[in-house]
Amino acid sequence: MLTHHALWTALDRLAEDHGLSPSALAKKAGLDPTTFNPSKRFGRDGKPRWPTTESLSKVLQATDTRPEHFLQQAAEAMAEPPPPPQPILPLVSQNQARNGLDAAGNTPNGTQDAIAFPDLRDPDAWALEIQGDACLPVYRDGDRLILSPNTTARRGDRVAIYTRDKILVIGALTRTTATRMVIQPFGAGSTDQAIDQTDIAWSARILWASQ
Question: If DSSP codes are grouped into helix, strand and coil, which group holds residue 120?
């Protein structure tokens, strides 16, 4: 019997054989680009999700792969010890945030990618990819920030605040009261910005950044 790990490993190797990422493989097969992303392989409750027979059929057809070849790759994967599980975090770009974003990194059109990261003990943690130079010199284009909406932010912590007007502000927390949060946005020449609590959709502490 095929295992969850073996089936996904066979799909990953099929993508590699054709010089594609899992997202590119799904797109080539006419599927949503996020269909085979790591974040789609397990539910929020940790239960495994399996690729559908329809999606597998479309992939085999799009790559001109014989079913027996794919099954052979899966069989080889079953003979290998599975790697230790590692949490998968949604990865969202700043551009995606303009269309709507909740505290768990979900966008109206679905999360576009994902990354593996050590356990943060926050089921809602996710990753944000910086785009452009608005956060220089603190963060550069391409840096990835790990956000934790369930971790309490204190004065001096780096945070991300998302307003109900769909504006994402990234900076250092200056002050928090019952009525507002004051943040020093990153970027040359920026000054303290006070945001009313009623205008905040969510806020998250920045735990880590790839720089």
Answer: coil
| Dihedral sign (CA 145, 149, 152, 156) | positive
Q: Which amino acid is at 147?
A: L
Residue 181: pLDDT band by 50, 70, 90 thresholds? very high
Instruction: Provide the terminal-to-terminal Cα distance of the chain, rounded to the nearest Å.
Output: 43
Strands 88-93 and 126-129: parallel
Show Cβ contacts of residue 204 under 8 Å, excluding neighbours closer than 6 positions: 103, 147, 148, 149, 151, 153, 159, 160
3-state secondary structure of 42: strand
Quote the pLDDT of residue 141.
92
Task: Judge contact between 92 and 126, C-beta under 8 A.
Answer: yes
Q: How long a stretch of residues is the chain?
A: 211
Tokens representing residue 181 in the block? 């949060």
Tokens at 169, concatenated: 């502000």
d(CA 62, CA 177): 56
Quick count: other Cβ atoms within 10 Å of Cβ 106? 15
pTM metric for this prediction: 0.57
The answer to whether residues 171 and 159 touch, using CB atoms and an 8 Å cutoff, is yes
